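Example record

Each entry pairs one chain with its bound ligand, N-(3-carboxypropanoyl)-L-norvaline.
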Amino acid sequence: MKKYTAIKDIENLSETIKQAIELKENPFQYEALGKQKTLVMLFFNSSLRTRLSTEKAAKNLGMNVMTLNVGETWDLEFEEGTIMNLKSAEHIKEAAQVISQYADIIAVRAFPSLINREQDELEPIITNFIKYASVPIINMESATAHPLQALADAITIEEFKRSKTPKVVLSWAPHPKKLPHAVANSFVEMMQKRDVDFVITHPPGYELDPRITKNSIIIYNQEEAFQNADFVYTKNWSSYSNYGEILKTDANWMITKEKLGTAKFMHCLPVRRNVVVEDAVLDSEHSIVIKQANNRTFAAQIVLKGILENL
Ligand code: SN0
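Structure tokens for the complex follow.
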């Protein structure tokens, strides 16, 4: 693997998922692979799972890890040709080249503004790191995608499925804050590549980017969508067409024990209890969110392994 900025960077998805599950049995198997190699992780936004699981994955492979909370360093400039007489002290051109001298792999987290759709879709931070860094880049959630999460999700579904082609539903749920589309986008892209019966459900107005959902089935009635579901993957996102807006916070869309039935509950976390999903679900055997989060380590590890083997 040359980099992991999008799901399409994985050449053989089924094989990668299989290998990630095998890694769980023996996580230190490739301890020599990352010896004297350094992962630099750059966080433009908050992180709990991504930060810790990616560091753990790197260390399982024998790597050194350095983490920078970008908010604690110089404000970076991304525009070409700007006169830098305002807030930004350092241009991405220097920063990316300098960091590349300290790192063998650079991982970046950078959320969208959710204000300017065109600007967010240009992915200025991750795109400029790809452009100016001289080492492979890993996307730890960008404006429009969270491919490490999607890989962990696919691993989790593979582990928990009880039939060859399980029914997987992606359900929107209410949230007090406007949230990015990245997790939902990557989950949709991932499910389109897997052998699953996939349905998306959300209130009208919450359609994701049609270039991503393509011909995936959208059912606006949540109850109907949930019929015979094996997995209910829940995530809030703000409107895409009315970019970044919260159209309605309809509490009826919250996931309840009754609605879930016998399906497994999945969520990338962090999750707002009793807004997105009720306690009775999260605290039940139906919830697999903790095991799903554990798979973040093995998703990151199989990706790092693939990149290290190609350095
Ligand atoms: C992020 C998101 O993309 O939705 C990260 C998920 C992995 N989630 C949040 O920002 C949640 C914030 C909140 O206040 O609940």
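The longest strand covers residues 38-43.
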